[in-house]
Amino acid sequence: MGSGTKNHLLFKTIGFICVIVLTLHGCITHDPIPLVIKVPAFYKNKSTKDGLIVIADPYNERGKARYIFGKDIRKKGVYPIHLIFQNQGDNYFDITKVETTLISEAGIEYKPITHEEASSTILKNTPIRVVAYGLLGSAFLVLTVPFAVSAGVSSYRTNKTIKKDFNEKQFAKELIKPHEMSHGFIFFSLKIDDKKISIDDFKERYSIKLRSLNNIKTGETFDLNIPIS
C-alpha cells in the first residue's frame, strides 16, 4: 500500500472520529424553556369551582413533550400534566393538601412520581460518554482525551441544569390568593411492574382527580375530576 493511500485512510479515519466526537459532545446540552400560560378559554380540559379555574394541560404528544423537556420523556413512560390554578374570585384556596391521581379509561389509577424521578429519565450518562471517548482515545489519544474531559464536565453541568429545570417546573402546593395563579407540572409513570410502555398508551382517554381542595372562606373541602382529551 503506497504512502498516499495510507495518508488518505488516515485522514478518513481521523475525520470519522472527529464526527463521532463532535456528535457526542454536541448532544450534551439542555436549554430550559419557559412555560407560557394562556387564557383559560384556550384550554380544553378544565373545571371551575367558586371562581377557581383548574386546568389540566397534558403533554401527551411528541412535539409538545420534547419541546418543553428537551426529550420525548413519554418513551420512558412518563406522562407530564401541566396543572394551572387561576383564582378569578375573591376566595382564598388552600391546595397544600391536594392529592392527585391519573385514572385510565379502564379504571387503572396512577399516583404521581417526584420531579427527581421524572428528570432521572433524561439525565446524561457521564461515565458512558467518558468511556466512549476513552475507547476512541486508545487509538488517537492526543485528539480525544481533551474531548473526554470536556464531555464529563459538560454532562455533569447539563444534569444539574436538567434537575434544576424540573424542580422549577414542578407543581408547588400553596395558598392561592384572590386573582392570583399557581401552576406547574405533575408527573405520572404509566409503568406498572414490567409492563412495556408504548406511545399508544398516551393516546388513551384519562382523567385526573384532585382531592382535598379547600375554600378557606366557606370552609368547604372539595374534589374535582377533569377528563383529559
Low-confidence stretches: 127-136
Shape: globular
β-strand percent reads 25-35%
Count of helix runs: 5
Going by CATH, the homologous superfamily would be Gamma-adaptin ear (GAE) domain
Plain-language structure description:
The N and C termini lie far apart (66 Å). The chain has 229 residues and is of the alpha+beta class. Strand 1 and strand 2 (52-58) form a beta hairpin. Strands 4, 5, 6, 8, 10 and 11 form a six-stranded antiparallel beta sheet that branches. Strands 1-2-3-9-7 form a five-stranded antiparallel beta sheet. It has one domain (3-228): Immunoglobulin-like, CATH 2.60.40. 34% of the residues lie in helices and 27% in strands.
In short:
The chain is an alpha+beta fold. The chain is built from 5 helices and 11 strands, in the order αββαβββββαααββββ.
